[in-house]
Amino acid sequence: MTLWEDQQSIDDLAGDPEYRQTVEGLLALNVLGDDQQTDVYELNGNSLAT
Which is nearest to 6 in space by CA: 34, 37, 43? Predict the structure, then answer.
């Protein structure tokens, strides 16, 4: 699980070549498992809004 400040930060990371290379390497080694998903939630105060 990772936490990010805003959608732009997520988009910036996904577009980073070094990040993509790292993810591709982990997927090739099956380190992350077969089923990958991304869920985005907005944090309001001390609770997650789904």
Answer: 43
Question: Hey, what amino acid is at 33?
Answer: G
As given in the structure block, the two tokens for residue 39 are 């869920």
Q: 9 CB contacts (<8 Å, ≥6 apart)? A: none
Rounded to whole angstroms, the Cα distance separating 32 from 14 reads 16
Domain ranges of the chain: 7-49
d(CA 12, CA 8) in angstroms, rounded, equals 6
pLDDT in tens, 16-44: 999 999 988 988 998 877 777 888 888 77
Beta strands in the chain (DSSP E): 42-44, 47-49
